[in-house]
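User: Here's a structure from my thesis project, written as structure tokens. My advisor, Dr. K., wants to see whether a designed sequence matches the one we expressed. Can you design one independently, without my sequence as a hint?
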């Protein structure tokens, strides 16, 4: 199993290019600042006074402030004819956004990870995959971990809020996700075909074999399947809390995007398809609806096999990837629908009576644009988690894109490489060079031994269950939170 090879060279080259090209060429920066997104500028006090039909008050000097105290804020009627000025989002505007640097790094990292994964898959078409480590899968796993970390940073921002309403929403969705996860984990494999049970059995058996190979003959695993499932349910609750506000935000931007494109039926159809994409992902792992129906379709008194089991696995992978690409392609419509909240709030303000401070209007309009990068992360990150967990499922689970029969997932034998001994009779230079080469060989041998032991314990059977469940659970959390968001914005907000 080679470690120092073409894959590693390409990975190091991609990491170097990403570091050097980020200030000059960034896909994440282009996504927001390519001229297709328009923000709304907040009106100045002079413009508000002109619309209200009053003269701009002069600023008091320091003596007047000491004599009269603090000056009253400028107020204008709410029903003034205010129309916000549009401006395309520029790079200078985006640099001051909150979480923009995190957004730029993560999106660019995902783009380079996708490139490395595509290269690795093409490379494995020419070599035997069993002889090398799939570095593209490692990049996919790192992308999933970085997405979860960024969502945790966003949730920590909500927890630090003084109001406390966001904290309550995250906790409520976390507890609800815990209950749903505990119900899902007790469902039999005949209904939800994640493969968790075979994966856990393979993991425990391989751990016992590995312990005996290391000399722990009396060692036994003190962890039961119930404990593992409880821990997995806790992780599911944490993911559910992370995806609470992304789902609520998705519901709001979906409704606004559909209304914004009311004269474009094709775009509306694509928006509805993108919104219902997580539902399709959920159905793909429900065995009676998906595999049993296509594998043994009823035809009168008999059944007909439409597609084989390996072909169904490939179709399922392709379906998830295509749906994720569709949702990523609709990012601009959702972000523009969010930016239009400024004008939407102004139109709602015109219907109200009374007066409002000019500074409140400016803050309300500016706040929408300030959270643009956060909204972009909330929309893109769940899609990236589903996409890259599916790619990791294909690579680590030994599936195929073309419907070939997957590998049985057996445990590979551990091979302990031995370093080359130093031959006697060498001079100092040759001996020093030989010692240097020997150190490199020993390091490579130890890394190879570690990866071999890891592959012996974590087999493809285990990865199939783990990443299939992760993909399905993220989609389920998005369905729950987004449907609740639809109900909230359509009925509770109107009442």
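Assistant: Designed independently from the structure alone:
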């Amino acid at each position: 199993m080679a470690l120092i090879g073409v894959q590693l060279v390409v990975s190091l080259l991609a990491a170097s290019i990403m570091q050097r090209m980020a200030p000059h060429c960034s896909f994440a920066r282009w996504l927001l600042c390519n001229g297709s997104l328009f923000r709304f500028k907040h009106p100045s006090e002079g413009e508000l006074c002109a619309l209200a039909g009053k003269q701009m008050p002069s600023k008091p000097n320091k003596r007047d402030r000491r004599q009269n105290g603090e000056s009253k804020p400028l107020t204008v009627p709410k029903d003034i004819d205010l129309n916000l000025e549009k401006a395309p989002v520029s790079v200078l505007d985006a640099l001051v956004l909150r979480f923009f640097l995190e957004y730029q790094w993560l999106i660019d990292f995902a783009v380079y990870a996708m490139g490395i994964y595509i290269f690795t898959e093409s490379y494995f078409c020419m070599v035997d995959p069993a002889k090398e480590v799939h570095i593209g899968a490692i990049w996919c796993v790192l992308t999933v971990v970085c997405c979860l970390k960024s969502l945790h940073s966003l949730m920590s921002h909500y927890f630090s809020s003084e109001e406390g309403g966001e904290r309550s929403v995250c906790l409520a969705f976390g507890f609800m996700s815990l209950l749903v996860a505990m119900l899902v984990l007790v469902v039999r494999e005949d209904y939800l075909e994640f493969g968790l049970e075979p994966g856990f059995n393979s993991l425990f058996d391989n751990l016992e074999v590995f312990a005996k190979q290391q000399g722990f003959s009396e060692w036994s695993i003190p962890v039961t399947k119930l404990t593992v499932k409880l821990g997995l349910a806790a992780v599911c609750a944490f993911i559910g809390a992370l995806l609470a506000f992304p789902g609520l935000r998705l519901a709001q931007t979906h409704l606004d995007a559909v209304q914004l494109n009311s004269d474009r039926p094709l775009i509306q159809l694509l928006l509805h398809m993108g919104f219902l994409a997580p539902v399709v992902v959920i159905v793909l792992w429900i065995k009676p609806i998906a595999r049993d129906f296509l594998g043994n379709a009823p035809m009168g008194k008999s059944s007909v096999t439409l597609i084989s089991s390996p072909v169904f696995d490939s179709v399922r992978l392709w379906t998830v990837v295509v749906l994720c690409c569709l949702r990523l392609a609709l990012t601009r419509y959702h972000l523009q629908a969010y930016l239009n909240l400024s004008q939407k709030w102004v139109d709602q303000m015109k219907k109200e009576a009374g007066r409002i401070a000019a500074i409140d209007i400016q803050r309300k309009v500016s706040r929408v644009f300030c959270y643009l990068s956060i909204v972009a992360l909330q929309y893109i990150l769940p899609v990236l988690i589903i996409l890259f967990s599916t790619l990791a499922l294909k690579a680590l689970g030994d599936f195929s894109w073309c419907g070939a029969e997957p590998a049985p997932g057996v445990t590979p034998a551990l091979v302990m490489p031995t370093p080359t001994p130093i031959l006697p009779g060498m001079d100092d230079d040759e001996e020093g060079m030989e010692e240097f080469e020997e150190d490199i060989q020993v390091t490579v041998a130890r890394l190879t031994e570690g990866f071999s032991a890891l592959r012996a314990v974590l087999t493809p059977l285990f990865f199939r269950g783990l990443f299939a469940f992760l993909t399905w659970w993220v989609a389920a959390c998005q369905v729950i939170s987004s449907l609740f968001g639809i109900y909230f914005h359509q009925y509770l907000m109107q009442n």
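When you compare it with your expressed construct, this may help: The two ends are 63 Å apart (CA to CA).
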